[in-house]
């Protein structure tokens, strides 16, 4: 039977409050990063947007780097594979229907959303912020390994190896993130989608949906 002693009940409530605070704070970080950018996303602004006390926030996150690392882990989680009790499932956007459909889906559902733009803000900041880079690099490398395994369940090379598939998909991911920077140079709001379709046409001759016998 579950432990229903007063101490366990209090502990459960504290855990729930802690998780609620963490969710509110991560959501606030995403909004601040998307609207104001990394440099202007301060702990005070996040606290105000999350509507939590300073003490509650600092209890969870001692530094801005801690705050960003936890938020990034939260942002990456939906696109990482996970194992159920029965089978391994993939949580990527890629479905193998067509390269164009998968890239457009990846752009619209992940990259070109507040969460995707917030991720780019953190990644760009980490280029020169060593403390932030040290915090996020281990999780990023694990995330990259997971995504590489996922894409190999969906696509195979037409004339090449699995390494080719991984490299091509990595190029596609880099391209989509870079579109947020490139859009500053474009006045046409449809340009991003046009460029994605062009990339898909360049990539399509090299990859195809993985057949059951190739898995």
Layout of strands and helices, then pairs:
Elements: H1 6-36, H2 43-50, H3 54-60, H4 64-76, E1 82-83, E2 88-89, H5 99-111, H6 114-125, H7 130-154, E3 155-157, H8 162-182, H9 191-203, E4 207-209
Antiparallel strand pairs: 1-2, 3-4
How would you describe the overall organization of this protein?
The chain has 215 residues and is mostly helical. The chain starts with 5 loop residues before the first helix and ends in a 6-residue tail after the last strand. It has 2 domains: 6-62, Arc Repressor Mutant, subunit A (Orthogonal Bundle), CATH 1.10.10.60; 76-214. Helices cover 67% and strands 5% of the residues.
User: Within the largest sheet, what's the order of strands?
Assistant: 1-2
Q: Can you summarize the main beta sheet?
A: 2 strands, antiparallel
| Count of helical stretches | 9
Secondary structure class reads: mainly alpha
Count of spatially separate domains: 2
Based on DSSP secondary structure assignment, what is the total number of beta strands?
4
Strand content: under 5%
State the end-to-end CA separation: 43 Å
Indicate the radius of gyration in whole angstroms. Answer: 20 Å
Question: If you average the pLDDT, what whole number results?
Answer: 87
> Uncertain regions: pLDDT < 50 for 5+ in a row?
81-91
Net shape:
globular
Helix residue percentage: 55-70%
Order of helices and strands: HHHHEEHHHEHHE
Q: In a few lines, what is going on in this structure?
A:
This protein is mainly alpha-helical and 215 residues long.
Highlighted features:
215 residues, mainly alpha, Arc Repressor Mutant, subunit A, 2 domains, two-stranded antiparallel sheet, two-stranded antiparallel ribbon
